[in-house]
Records
---
Amino acid sequence: MSLVTLRVNGQSHEVDIEPGTPLLYVLRNDLNLSGPRFGCGLAQCGACTVIVDGVAIRSCVTPAASVSGEITTLEGLSRDGQLDPVQQAWIAEQVPQCGYCQNGQIMTARALLDSNPNPTDAEIREGMQGVLCRCMTYYRIQKAIKRASRETAAASFRDGDTPASEGAKA
Amino acid sequence: MSDKLILPRAVEAAIRSVNPATTRRDFLKSSGALVLTLSAGAAPVGKALAQAAAAGPYTDPDYLELDTWIVIHPDNTATFYVGKTDGGQGTGTAFRQMMCDELDIAYDNAKLVMGTTDITPDQGGSGGSDGIERDGWPMRRTAAEARRVLLELASERLDTPVTGLTARDATISVTADPSRSVTYAELIGGRRFDIALSGDNINQTTGIAKVKPVQDLRVIGQSIPRYDIPGKVEGTNSWAVDVKLPGMVHARNVKPPIAGATLRSIDESSVSDMPGFVAVVNRRNYVAVVCEREEQAIDAARQLVVDWTPPAEAPFPASDDLFDYIRDTAPTSVSDTDDAGDPDTAFARAARVVEAEFEVPYQGHTAIGPAHALADPSDGQMTIYSNDMKSYGLRNGVAAFLDMPRDRVRVVYMDGPQMYGRTAADDVGFEAAFLAKELGRPVRVQWMRDEETAWDTKGPAYTFKMRGAIDGDGRMSALEYDARAIDYNHVNYNEPDTVLIAQLMGIRRENPDPGEAKIPQTQYAIPNRKMAASVISLPLAWETPLRTGNLRDPDGPQVTFAYESFVDEMAAAAGADPVEFRLDMIERSDEDPRLRRARSLATVRAAAEHYGWDSRPSPNPRMLEGGGPIATGRGIAFTHRNGTVVATIAEVEVNRETGGIWVKRLVCAHDCGLVVNPLGLTQTVECGMLHGLSRALWEEVQFDAEKVTSVDWATHPSLRHADTPESVEVVIVNGDPNPDRPDLPHYGAGEASHKPMIAAVANAVHDATGVRLRRVPFRRERVLEALRAYS
């Protein structure tokens, strides 16, 4: 066992674990963060996704000891009591069915929009391709991502920022 | 291991909802009219709550008491207790709407608790899309009865006859003088109704009151957002996978590497030095490794050295040889037949005869989260935290399996990955309870991905052989149908002698379930029929990963694929438009003309109209124009499921060069009678269709002659984002001949839209290319092969 320091959702945690322990089990069982979930343990389905320094990663195959950056889980997406625009869009579009995979869908969508605030339909399909949903909520997920993109652009326009280049990629 | 106690939200809510200082069970057991005398300041929290909840024994709530179903709180809110579970299809929200409407309370002022065996009455959990169709009725009737009792109490309080009172938003006022009013809380808040109900079984439960006519319903029919969605999106929902108890340990199973292998020996020393090791538990061929931490159990289960003796004969043929095996093997039973008219004469007189065969492989549930359960053996009792959709059956089965009194076992139902039938969620509940009893500690078990995909129950593989006659008028005059399904020893829900751990322990029931193969409902006029469906067995019937169990609309997608493909083939042979051909056969059918026939016609017409269907035969005579690789076509499939009627049109793009199919547009006309929540229904129908599309395009369980080789998402693929249609359109139909009748029934959703999907896609591919796809799934290499053979 060895001490590992993790920075999760803005807080620092020290955990005593075997070096190879996947991040997923540390988050879920030591830190009681239940957003990321076990789906396959093979990085195939995305249910365990967390964001590390802006990049969506699969926590089921990532040793906790190898993570030095800032980890964001589903629980850490909201800011100042406000849900993330992706979460708001998810509720507005009534996306989840069982909801088990939605952590991965939401976190991957967040990272996708961070790197590409105004994705085309094809870019959404491509960017989300590796995240599986057995309830088949894909249709609503894609609608929600477009809504989040639209509403984020509208909000930043209201805030006086440069509007995202609507239609540039259409 | 964290010592933090995380109490399941469902339990916590149920306990707190009655009164912070008493428990749900105390409330149900109390004989006095008033139970709310303790100070609210005495609210126990954390461990005290858990201890109160765990006290047992866990007697069944009596469905013949109104207090079992409905509690009115001192703050003028209500909690409803129902014996159903909701896998995310919005039934919980719908039930709450139904009960609010009958009780006359605002939706936001009520809560609903589901599926926990000692606090909600046994309505069997979920299955068969019958929640709204069947189980909603006792809920409506008990809520109506509560309203009746409240009106009686108000009548006395306000000294006004009931006929002079108005109930609204949990307040009853004198109609002629609304300033005189009394709230439900003032009448009965925190106290028992003490009203007996009647009914020979829970589905018949009723009081004296009648439910409202449809015209008076206000909450039913509203698109209220689902109450479970915010928690699932925010990360605050409590799932069965999340429950942690002090002292709990983690277990993982070790399955036989070859189906039918028997255990010779276990080398425990191969794992006993590993960190966190607790125990290896073994009974005959059942093996589990238990460790303190989850990842330790996973590692140890992988490293455990077990010596297995392979079976003397191959347990099953390889999946490549499966359909030949089915055709060449003598059936164990004939489970379904339908004979009518004189098929031989009809064939002899036919203008055209068409013969066809179809094949559907085993397909899996493959839940996104592998099966899991946590069992707590504290105080000589057993509490199982599970997402099993039939929590009551799990309770009964585990009690029998462990030889424990039923009232010493309870199942706390919590959210989990989608269910869609008899999944390994049943098996794992038994495993967790067995291990917890053995070790005397709370044990959490979760299956691994390879285990889930390989060993979970499967939807049965089918072959179909069909022959049809078209008479001189271009009508279908005869049908021969011969279906065979591998379904012998079908595993039913939560049976203590068929769950996997029981099988591996060597438990055998004397008479295995004969299984079932189905014939389609003859919703059309086909006067001469010879139809039969038979069951086939594999060499290995027990301890096999190829167990069959109910998978969403059991048998429906397979049978409807063959039947509706063949009807389409007959339409093409007759040179008729596929919609008109079906409408003509429905119009001439002997279905109940006032109800079923009218609803069928309305639904098929609604689908065609919404789609913009132009009348012409298939395949599209202009399909070869343009010359590009993409061919476009449309196809329809129509079916009934219990009381629900559904017609689905798929528009496809087929890439002739790659064999790739993209279903670009889906239109589903759906008549399930009275719609409780149009928003929730639409989402459920959409997802049911796309799950059907996944089975059409991707899903197949593969195996060699020793083991299942479909073990993950690469080897049992599923629909992905890129496959998603550009447009999914749901048309809600009310085709009742008397659409405004006050007793318009509500039928089910969930499975109906799933059922015709494979057929709709196959028919659209035929329209686009002239190629009839006869083997599910329609993966590109198979489609390409069919395209090449056709040209």
Note: Residues 85-158 of chain A form a domain with the DNA polymerase; domain 1 fold (CATH 1.10.150.120).
---
Amino acid sequence: MATTETAAAADAVARQAATAEPPARAAAVKPWVWAVVAVAFVLPLLKFVIPGVISDYRLFVISTMMIAAIAVLGLNLLTGFNGQISLGHGAFYAVGAYTAAVMLDKISWMPDYYFLTIPAAAVMCFVVGYLFGLPALRLEGHYLALATFALALAVPQLLKYKWLEGLTGGVQGVVLLKPSPPFGLPLSEDQWLYYYILVIMVALYFIAFNILRGRNGRAMMAIRDHQMAADTMGIDTAQYKTVTFGISAAYTGIAGALSASAIAYVAPDSFGFFLSISLLIGLVVGGVASLAGSIIGGVFTVLVQNSAQALSKFVKNDLGLPFDLSAYAVYGILLLILMYVMPLGIAGGIVMAWRRLRG
Amino acid sequence: MEQLMQQVVSGLANGAIYACVALALVMIFVSTDHINFAQGEMAMFSTYIAWQLMQWGAGFWPAFFIAIAVSFVGGLTIERVILRPLHTAPVLSIVVVFIGLLAICNSIAGSVWSYLIKEFPSPFPKDTFGLAGLIGPHQFGVVLVTIVVLSLLFVFFRFTPLGLAMRAAAQNPVSARLAGVRVDWMLALGWGLAAAVGAVAGTMVAHIVYLDPNMMGGILLYAFAGALLGGISNPGGAVLGGFMVGVLENLVAFIGNAIEKSFGVYIIGNGEKLTVALIIVITVLTVKPSGLFGRVVVKRV
Amino acid sequence: MATSRRGFVGGMSAAVVFSGGAAFAQKKYDDGATDTEIKIGHTNPYSGPASAYGVIGKGIEAYWKMVNDKGGINGRKVKFVSLDDGYSPPKTVEMVRQLVEQEKVLCVFNTLGTPTNTAIHRYMNQRKVPHLFVATGASKWGKPKEFPWTMGFQPDYHTEAAIYAKHILANVKDPKIAVLMQNDDYGKDYWEGFKDGLGKDINKVVRHVTYEVTDPTVDSQVIQLKDSGANVFFNIAIPKFAAQAIRKAADLNWKPVHYLNNVSSSVASTLKPAGYDNSQGIITGLWLMDPTDKQWNDHPEMKTWREWMAKYMPGANTEDGNYIYAYAVSTLMLETLKKAGDTLTRENLMKQAASHQKLRVPLVLPGITVSTSPTDFYPVQAIRLARFKGETWELFGDVLSAEST
């Protein structure tokens, strides 16, 4: 089958990936990953040592970062490791969030077993992602970008669809309760949520690591690097691409379900197009085709918006510029600078710097 | 029946807007292979320049042409200053740069001119233009301007040496360079042209949707869909695609109404017209992956 | 472990000393208030789809600057912390938690948007932090029984729409009503109120269509409305789309009795762009003065407002009604804080907010005052109908409120 459409986009992803960290070739989990996980688990306990620094609010912010990281991880599986571009992962995030919210809202005993919403959201999003992956097989590069872009715009509108209103709450959304710590654990809601999300994130990270390390991961990346060659080697490219779409959607959907619990509210306005864009930004800034980069990207998406605000205030109040530089402009400028300094994302930048240091 | 006619004509008028913006997208695509997500915001910015000139007392047409010239230089500068250093960067990084540009354009326009919607005049005479009751003078004018711009671009690419050089640079940069074409300047030129076409689109759109920093948000998606439907590598196709998307969208709502009226069941309405129109576009694309009028590019492996 | 316990005990004793000291001075403070400062939190969409409202935040900031320049409130300066939430509910939650838990504000004031406020509604009430004078017209902000820490400000959409419905039934012979509605909670709230107002006459609505904010125009919708043969048009749209609808109706030569929601009643942002010719005879409900309306030019409050604008918001658009809004709502906050005196606790602030008696708030239409009580959490409840004539609104009829309909 002759490739009929320029696969420039996919090629570029491949080029980008080649220079980034290749986790699939690593035999085992690197020690620093374990160190990070250990620190993350100890973090809330530091409250007793430095109470001013580790507050419930900060844990909540870190929780939202971890949620974003899971979503970016899902996008990375698809775009970074399989070469399919998605501008619409916010749609899967929304489907996951609403799956969880509707379950918690409509089934009376569900709030006590809120953790069941996670597998439910994963299954739901896997199915939706898999089905969307079928037509996506025929689309490449910019066309796939359009299709996913359309998905991101369509989902918030579908949530308001007349016949779904009874479930989704229509434009009003659904107000939920935050999960409370089980077994009378002496934890605050935010601490419990932090651990809940952290455990899920770590589990998902290692699942992704294992997928990518094995045969399937090599097949996924072979398709990204050269689909036709992968085809001739006997890889069922269609099957791999659609299943990857499903898994990727499931990851992002889990993130959505977690956010429904963390924010305790879902509404169509929460899943606007900017959500998809910020996931994409998280992916690129963190590091395409890098698992650790996904985590960095998740942290970045939350951090950069807040620091843009702080910077904007600083410019206005302390530098005394005559014009008003809004946070949104600062955000744009930050993105430009980052892409100049580290066109391969933060993970790529770190790897390059490390290599240079070692000669 | 009257409603159907009105919906089709109103769809064509909206389609003209999408077609204009789609044309600007195509300009950048054929010269650089990128889809510029900041295109809409750049066009919006150009429109504000025209508006400002008119506030300072310029007439519509002088303001229009100055804005186009300024935008041309602006587009050229953006390519040379911002994108040139990144020409080896991966495509996703470029997308992020576009998003950054979008944010900057949008918020600077907001701080300078505020978010209050502004009236933008129409250059077309109110009484002598258009078809009474069916299409307003401005809508009719927009359709004409779109066709004029398209013809000018066609002539430029087909019959001028510079146009030929630009096409060569886009299609085969290496051979073009060997033949003495300054490929990097051709890319910048493509950006300049795109910004200029965008300025035309913006000044035409602003009268219809009113001028505000977010005016291009919704339009860009339709233009994107139109350009891909028609074939992103073909200016004429993109314009046709834009018109089709405009009509399609109105027809979806119309048919939804008709169904509700005859069967009393609500299936689709105004809330779903975008979704349904996009599903149709994507379905067409899965059948014809390079658009209805796009050239099939055979890639060597 | 030993260190941590010591740290904990230390924190406790510090708290005891602090509260003891406060009691001694006979002044009572909660988080966010001291002898020299009152800290107020705020979120606003400075970016994103609703950024047109960003000017409200800037206006409020300028207002507190003026208050501080004049010596503050009972000798205390106001520290106003305003954060951007981009009109995204999850972001609002994060920002408001930052305000309450990190910045430790005394209260959160005039947060903008219905979905955004819904997202923090329960949090504010669990934390028992005053959530005052929110910038949304939804009807759910005045429920003191369930949410004793949340209070609205402006007349709610529900009531306003019901007033229009009654007016239509009383004044239009054989009404056939067409409705254009923005497909979100704001549009829905108006629509529900309108339906309630019509009661059994709901069948008078012959056509109801919606639009999305991502739609480039509402031309197609207006064509559908005209086609229904309606003679009354209720326009529930934000300024940009309301203006498009007014113009398109005129282009189509459709001349219904046109009711426009208060959200788009600004002359500068809706009727001027729509064209004065096209706007004649449109009816709306008003409760604030319009800055372009010449009849207020000599009104002392309008003069004070213009001086304030010139001094604190130089270069800002003086036609933008959002600055009027910012000034009015800030004044209500100021009056509430003044009344609280030296007892700047959250409980007292809520008590004061719920005990305004016919308070005159500047720039609100003459005849409308603010009254609240422990069971009435709707500060401004009345509107006056107005008809567009020439280049401005002309008020007619009495002050109308939910009780009078």
Note: Chain A touches chain B through 61 residues (CB under 8 Å).
